[in-house]
Amino acid sequence: MAESDPKFDQQAADVLADPVHVPGAPTEPQAKPRRKWGRLALMLSLPLALIIGGVVYWRSLQGEVSTDNAYVHLDKVSVSAEVGGKIIGVMVKENQHVKAGDLLFRIDSESYQLQLAQSDAAIATAQASQTALANSSALSGADVSAAQEQIAFARSNLSRQEALWKRGFTTKAAYEAAQHQVAIGQEALKLAQAKGQEAAAKLSTGAQVPGVYPQVAAARAQRQTVELNLARTEVRAPVSGQVSQASRLQIGQELISGLPVITLVADGSAYIEANFKETDLADMRVGQTAEIKFDAYPGLKLKAHVLSIGAGTGSEFSVLPAQNATGNWVKVTQRVPVRIVLDEASPRELISGLSVKVTVFTDGRRR
Fold first, then answer.
1. Of 130-139, 310-319, 353-362, where does the model show the most confidence?
2. Predicted pLDDT of residue 364
3. What are phi and psi of 251, to 5 degrees?
4. Would the CA dihedral through 244, 247, 250, 255 be positive or negative?
5. Of 60, 68, 73, which Cα lies nearest the Cα of 358?
6. C or N: which end of the chain has fewer Cβ atoms within 10 Å?
7. How far is CA 345 from CA 267, 289, 290, 341, in A?
8. By CB neighbour count within 10 A (0-12 exposed, 13-18 middle, 19+ buried), where does 262 fall?
C-alpha cells in the first residue's frame, strides 16, 4: 500500500469536523442564543430600587418641613456711657465673661467731683438765704409796727391841726399837710404789710416738697443729679454675658454720652431664626415641635418648638423693600422668619450666627 500524504489527511479531517464546508451537504439549523435574563433583571432592578427609595423618602417627609436657612441668635446688649468724659481705666478684655454689675470701664470723674462741691455751696447759699429771709424786718413785723406808729402820730397831728383850723389859729397849708401825712402813713402800712406777705410767701413750702425751703430743695436736687453723674463714671455690666468689641475701649479715649462702645452677648438668650418658604407655612402652627441640627457640631440634635411666626416676609423689613409695580416683575418665593426656642440645654456652647438646620413636625407628633 502506498504511503498516505499527511497534508491530504489533515484536510480530510477538517472537512469531516465541519460539515458546513462539505460541498453539497445539507445545512442544519443553528440553535437560538439563550436570552440573558440576568442582565435584564439587573437593568430593571436599579430604576425600580430608585423609585421605591424615592417613594419611601417622600413618605418620610410627610408631616414635616425643614430649612437650612436658619441661624442661632443671642440677645446683644449695647453698652454706652451715660456721661461724657475720658476713659481712665478698662477692666475687661475681649470674650471675657462678666456678671451683671461687674465694672467694665471707668471715666474720669474729676469734673463731676468739682460740680459736687459747687452743689454743696449752692445748698449752703440757699440755707443762708432762708435764714436771712426769716429774720428780715419785713417778716418780723417791725416795718408794720413802724408804719402803724407813723399813722397814729399823723392822725394825732391832724386832730390838732383840725381843731386849730376851726378856731382860725392855723393855716390851710398846715392843715392839708397834716392830712397828707396821714395818707402817707396809710400807704406805708400797706407797703409794709405787702412786704411781710411776700417774705412769708418766699418762705412757704409747696405740696411737692412740704417743709423744705424751695431754693434749698432745688440745690439738693442739683446735688443728687451730680451724684448720679459721678456714679455713672463707673460703667457696669447691665446683664451677665460675654464681652464683645472690647477693642473700642482705649485709655485716654474721649467718650460721647449715649454712643455705644461695647457689646455684651447675654447668657441664656439663644434662639433660632429660621427663614421658611411661604409654601411651607400652610400646616405650621405656634407650639409645634421641632428638631435642630448644627453645622458646627455634627451629630448634635436638640429638641425645640415654634415660638412665633413672623408678621412679614424678609423683604418687607429690608432697607430697600422690593417695588413690584413695574413691568419686569418676576415672582419669587418669599421667606418668612420663624422663631424657634430650645426645649433643652445645649451641651456645646451656642455661638451667635451659627448655621443650623431646622425641621418642624407639622403633624403634631413628637420625634
1. 353-362
2. 67
3. -60, 130
4. negative
5. 68
6. N
7. 12, 16, 15, 11
8. buried
- Per DSSP, the residues of 12-58 read HHHHHH-GGGSTTPPPPPPPPPPP-HHHHHHHHHHHHHHHHHHHHHH
| Residue where the block lists cell 394825732 | 156
Query: Is-contact 363 63, C-beta < 8 A?
Result: yes
Hey, what's the cell of 183? 395818707
pTM for the full predicted model: 0.63
Task: Give the pLDDT score at 366.
Answer: 54
Summarize pLDDT for 189-218 with one digit per residue, the tens.
788 778 777 777 666 666 666 777 788 888
CA–CA–CA angle 134, 138, 140 (5° rounding): 60
64 CB-side CA count, 13 A: 20
CA distance 9 to 3: 11
Q: How far apart are CA 283 and CA 63, in angstroms?
A: 9
| Radius of gyration of the chain, Cα coordinates, nearest whole angstrom | 52
Cell numbers 432697607 correspond to 319
**What pLDDT is recorded for position 136?**
66
Kindly report the CA angle at 37 between 36 and 38, in degrees rounded to 5?
95
The rounded distance, in Å, linking the Cα atoms of 319 and 360 is 29
d(CA 346, CA 299): 12
pLDDT for 147 = 77
Q: Which of 352, 360, 358, 337 is CA-nearest to residue 268?
A: 352
Tell me the percentage of the chain whose pLDDT exceeds 90.
Answer: 47
Using CA atoms, how far residue 356 sits from 296, 306, 360, in Å, is: 8, 15, 13
Contact predicate 151/189, CB 8 Å: yes
Whether 141 contacts 196, CB under 8 Å:
yes
Measure the CA–CA gap between 109 and 84, rounded to whole angstroms.
Answer: 10
Please state, in angstroms and as integers, the Cα–Cα distance from residue 129 to each residue in 21, 140, 207, following that order.
Answer: 148, 15, 21
Helix/strand/coil percentages in the chain, nearest 5: 40, 20, 35
Query: Rounded to whole angstroms, how far apart are CA atoms 68 and 293?
Result: 9
